[in-house]
């Protein structure tokens, strides 16, 4: 993926350099900067959309959390490039024509392609603002997702004026390749975000069979469908679930499997923390479910050692519970560390004890605050619980703060970073 981005970025610079003219005049220099920023922004937008197209090869190979962070960081860069392109182009136009700022805007809006690009820029800026770290926590998830969809409209509006630009208009082969790249990404988005989920829903016919309380504010939702083996879902992975009810059908919610797929049955375990999860708690048997996936790379394929340590925090136990049951291993090979604030927060405990007994695995339940003696986030305590921890692969799932602190502690305890497998959705 990174190699492709670097190669594509180099090609963009090459296209710009091939069209570079005399930049001895200020207006020519400004125009040249505008062209480079515009080409880079257009290519960057393609990459951003590809990262969220839900292409299985990327989701499984790179990891959904890594793709999400790349998308967030890249989005800031692309919006900066879009604004730089607009600013340089505006200044170049004023310098070349001698018009004033307000008058030049009126003239530029007279060109339909440029007007579309200006509207698209406005859309992208709005998306960037609501996605900023200081703003996003204050915006309802439904609102954020709805506004985020404007990215597609903004990208389409920007593309309208790109073929007419000096870097593409005079180079028909380059313009054809540029257009083909946009078409290919658009097809991938439509295929994996629309066609595949619809086809899967029709084929598998998944419906809710039960909703069970697992503890204070935690429920398990069991679903049943047809031919679920065809999904090829693995322990450690997640789906994006769309429950077809009046309040939930608009949003696809990401939840990990809390048990292996067996007998055409799927199960997730969810902590009730917001409007959507409260509605999940009120689901009734028979509700239709559209499940898109599986996604995630935290599977048995990442394993490199015979011994495995699973570390879970809170409801992060869900993928760890599935892995604890299915990871190959003999007596003593599997250890699970499960940390929670209180004993009531330890969900699925009976199942974990049963699995440990059947597989001769070890479970450590660590209850209390982060500064307590049972804190798993210190290297000394990790070595006490698992003396040969440096010989283990480690799978980790918990809150972003807990996961990052544990990763640091694991490195200090002697576990190489490449043997710590985690998906952290924070960016």
From TrEMBL:
Its cofactor is FAD. Keywords: 2Fe-2S, FAD, Flavoprotein, Iron, Iron-sulfur, Membrane, Metal-binding, Oxidoreductase, Transmembrane, Transmembrane helix. The chain crosses the membrane at residues 27-53, 74-93, 113-135, 147-164, 176-195. Its main location: membrane. It is a multi-pass membrane protein. Residues 201-301 form the FAD-binding FR-type domain. The keyword Acetylation does not apply. Gene3D superfamilies: Nucleotide-binding domain of ferredoxin-NADP reductase (FNR) module, Translation factors. SUPFAM superfamilies: Ferredoxin reductase-like, C-terminal NADP-linked domain (SSF52343), Riboflavin synthase domain-like (SSF63380). Coiled coil: none annotated. It is found in: Membrane. It holds the Pfam family Ferric_reduct. This is Ferredoxin reductase family protein. The lineage of its organism: Bacteria, Bacillati, Actinomycetota, Actinomycetes, Kitasatosporales.
């Amino acid at each position: 993926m990174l190699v492709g981005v670097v190669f594509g970025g180099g090609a963009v610079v090459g296209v710009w350099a091939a069209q570079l003219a005399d930049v001895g005049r200020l207006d020519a220099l400004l125009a040249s900067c505008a062209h480079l920023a515009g080409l880079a922004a257009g290519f960057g937008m393609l990459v951003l959309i590809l990262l969220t197209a839900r292409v299985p090869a990327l989701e499984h190979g790179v990891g959904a959390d890594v793709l999400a962070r790349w998308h967030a960081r890249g989005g800031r860069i692309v919006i900066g490039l879009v604004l730089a392109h607009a600013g340089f182009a505006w200044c170049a136009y004023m310098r070349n024509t001698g018009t004033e700022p307000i008058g030049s805007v009126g003239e530029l809006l007279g060109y339909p392609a440029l007007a579309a690009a200006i509207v698209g820029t406005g859309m992208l800026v709005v998306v960037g603002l609501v996605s900023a770290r200081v703003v996003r926590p204050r915006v309802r998830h439904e609102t954020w997702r709805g506004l985020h969809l404007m990215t597609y409209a903004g990208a389409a509006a920007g593309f309208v004026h790109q073929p007419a630009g000096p870097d593409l208009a005079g180079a028909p082969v380059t313009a054809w390749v540029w257009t083909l790249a946009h078409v290919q990404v658009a097809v991938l988005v439509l295929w994996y975000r629309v066609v595949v989920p619809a086809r899967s829903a029709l084929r598998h016919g998944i419906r809710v069979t039960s909703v069970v309380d697992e503890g204070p504010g935690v429920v398990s939702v069991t679903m049943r469908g047809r031919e679920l083996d065809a999904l090829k879902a693995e322990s450690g992975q997640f789906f994006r679930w769309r429950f077809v009810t009046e309040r939930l059908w608009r949003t696809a919610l990401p939840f990990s499997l809390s048990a292996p797929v067996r007998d055409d049955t799927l199960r997730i375990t969810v902590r009730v923390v917001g409007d959507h999860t409260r509605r999940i708690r009120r689901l009734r048997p028979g509700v239709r479910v559209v499940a898109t996936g599986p996604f995630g790379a935290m599977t048995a394929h990442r394993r490199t050692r015979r011994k495995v340590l699973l570390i879970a925090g809170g409801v992060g136990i869900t993928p760890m519970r599935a892995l604890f049951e299915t990871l190959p291993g003999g007596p003593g090979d599997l250890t699970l560390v499960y940390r929670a604030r209180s004993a009531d927060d330890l969900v699925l405990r009976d199942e974990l004890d049963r699995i440990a007994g059947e597989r001769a695995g070890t479970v450590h339940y660590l209850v209390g605050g982060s500064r307590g003696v049972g804190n798993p986030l210190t290297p000394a305590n990790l070595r006490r619980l698992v003396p040969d921890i440096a010989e283990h692969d480690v799978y980790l799932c918990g809150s972003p703060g807990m996961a990052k602190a544990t990763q640091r502690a694991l490195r200090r305890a002697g576990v190489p970073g490449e043997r710590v497998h985690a998906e952290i959705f924070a960016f």
